[in-house]
User: Which sequence fits this backbone?
């Protein structure tokens, strides 16, 4: 959890990682994109926040709480 910012928002590649990015982004929660969205729908993962029409993000506090609960 030391790589997470104190406050703010995270986009999906910052949470599940992106090995194709330059430099590669390591996964905080190592699941595939479809698994993540299925977990959001079922309530296992936190609900996203729409920052704009094309930008979806998650609160850092919600991701920290998810990590602490596992």
Assistant:
């Amino acid at each position: 959890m030391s790589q997470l910012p104190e406050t703010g928002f995270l986009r999906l590649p910052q949470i599940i990682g992106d090995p194709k990015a330059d430099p590669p982004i390591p996964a905080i929660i190592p699941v595939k994109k479809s698994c993540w969205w299925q977990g959001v729908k079922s309530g296992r993962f936190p609900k996203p926040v729409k920052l704009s029409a094309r930008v979806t993000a998650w609160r850092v506090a919600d991701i920290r709480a998810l990590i602490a609960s596992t």
